[in-house]
Design a protein that fits this description.
- The structure is a single chain.
- With 327 residues, the chain is an alpha/beta fold.
- It has two domains: 174 residues, Thiolase/Chalcone synthase (Peroxisomal Thiolase, Chain A, domain 1, 3-Layer(aba) Sandwich); 143 residues, Thiolase/Chalcone synthase (Peroxisomal Thiolase, Chain A, domain 1).
- The protein is built from ten helices and 13 strands.
- The strands form four sheets. It has a five-stranded mixed beta sheet with strand order 1-7-6-4-5, with helices on both faces. A four-stranded mixed beta sheet has the order 8-13-12-11, sandwiched between helices.
- Helix 3 crosses helix 4.
- The longest helix has 22 residues.
- The protein is globular.
- The two termini are 20 Å apart.
- The structure holds coenzyme A.
Length: 327
């Protein structure tokens, strides 16, 4: 039976010009750390850091422009913009509306989603639902973050882990047959559990009665949840489509930590070369990490038409989720 499917028509990314290798964190930022410690525990070798005045909206607009260009779609076709960010330009207007204005779009609607590092999967899920119900026909789904502005640069346990950047995908309405061989987003699976809200949070910010406005993390606790929850949600997505580990062509995971990514590859029985890894170059860019990794893989011509791609992420909330997309 014919049914609506949301197709990923193009992926784009943007990284700020300034690239800071691990060694510079010790030498220039005065952080008591070493390249060896960071690489061994996380796989991170460098991160990009936004210039003063460079905002989530500006970076998101740049990523969106590249995604539209690669999709060969005119900006005038866009009727929805959904932005995942934990570092918006301001509490309101939404960063998505700023991006709408920067792209010169005056029709449709734009709004933000807050789900921390899982934000892109949440945003993609909402876009998919809106496209399949006919509320939108061409959506920009963007993850954009300036985590450098919410890091405690005196806490070496967190400040070395994150970076700034933006990624975007263009999602368009298409048709399928309701089968797992269809092109497009096959399904999305979202979860949250607020009991673990305090192991990874921004302490304070707009509307709070105190705090510092900076990121706090109990790293070991987050690690403990990550692999089991991520493996379970990817298996849930595969089962929902009658698919198995062997059907995954590419795993594009949230890029937080190479050890978590490698453990996921093992859980899903995927050879290393089937897992897209950008954490070494980008560090953890939160909601931007999956679309940035997709843009990187697409830019290298790795993902081909018909490939089944599994996306997964976990982050503050706790929130976690997965999506299966056939390109
Ligand atoms: N450089 C050098 N030493 C550091 C350091 C740094 N940047 N950060 C911490 N250390 C030290 C600690 O002070 C501690 O020293 P001590 O033993 O003398 O007290 C030691 O290294 C071990 O610290 P610990 O925090 O126990 O390290 P860990 O093995 O748990 O690794 C993480 C820390 C953050 C790398 C790890 O917990 C992790 O990856 N967690 C998941 C985080 C994540 O992915 N979050 C995002 C999810 S969206």
């Amino acid at each position: 039976m014919a049914m609506m499917r949301s197709l990923i028509a193009g992926c784009g990314g943007y990284l700020p010009e300034r690239c800071v290798p691990n060694a510079a964190l010790a030498a220039e930022f005065g952080i008591e750390t070493s390249d060896e410690w960071i690489v061994e525990r996380t796989g991170i070798r460098q991160r990009h850091i936004a210039a003063p005045g460079e905002t989530a909206s500006a970076m998101g607009s740049a990523a969106a422009r590249q995604a539209l260009e690669r999709a060969g779609i005119e900006v005038s076709a866009v009727d929805a913009i959904i932005v995942a960010t934990a570092t918006p330009d301001s509490a309101f207007p939404a960063t998505a509306v700023r991006i709408q204005q920067q792209l010169g779009i005056t029709r449709g609607f734009a709004f933000d989603i807050a789900a921390a590092c899982t934000g892109f999967v949440y945003a993609l899920s909402v876009a998919d639902a809106m496209i399949r119900t006919g509320q939108a026909r061409c959506a920009l789904v963007i993850g954009t973050e300036v985590f450098s502005r919410i890091l405690d640069w005196t806490d070496r346990g967190t400040c070395v882990l994150f970076g700034d950047g933006a990624g975007a995908v263009v999602v368009t309405a298409g048709e399928g047959e309701g089968k797992s061989t269809d092109r497009g987003i096959l399904s999305t699976h979202l979860h949250s559990d607020g009991r673990h809200g305090d192991i990874l949070l921004v302490d304070g910010g707009a509307g709070s009665t105190g705090g510092t406005g900076l990121l706090r993390m109990a790293g070991k606790e987050v690690f403990r949840h990550a692999v089991s929850k991520l493996a379970a949600v990817v298996d849930e997505a595969l089962a929902a489509n009658g698919l198995g580990h062997g059907d995954i062509r590419w795993l594009v995971p949230h890029q937080a930590n190479l050890r978590i990514i490698e453990a996921m590859g093992r859980k899903l029985n995927l050879p290393r070369e089937r897992v897209v890894v950008t954490v070494g170059q980008h560090a953890n860019t939160s909601a931007a990490s999956i679309p940035l990794a997709l843009a990187d893989a697409a830019g290298r011509g790795m993902i081909e038409r018909g490939d089944l791609v599994a996306l997964e992420a976990i982050g503050g909330g706790l929130t976690w989720g997965a999506a299966l997309v056939r390109f």
